[in-house]
Amino acid sequence: MAFGYGLNTLLTGGTLAQSSGTQPVVLTDGQPVFLRMNGALAKADRLRIHAERLWAKAAHIHALLDSQRALGRCPDPATAAKFAVLRTEHSRVRVDTPKPRGQW
Known about the structure:
With about 100 residues, the protein is of the alpha+beta class. Helix content is about 50%, strand content about 15%. The strands form 2 sheets. Strands 1-2-5 form a 3-stranded antiparallel beta sheet, with no helix packed on it. It starts with a strand and ends in an 11-residue tail after the last helix.
């Protein structure tokens, strides 16, 4: 057997056989075998996009809360609660990728 990997296929393989004789030759039937992970890759991509959108929303709300605090005003409790929900949802959806610029 022989295996390789590519961009759209997790594994590509083929069967190989060694002929017997004084000069061994490697033979193959010429039929590749593919293991495609399109469904899993698509889901990971959708989750990454969703996590990025959640992070952007939470970062925007965090900036709003910071600007209210900088002006000496008490931040709106509903906005603070929304920020907490978005941050929690982002941590659940995130696919082990680093956050875009900035920290909360």
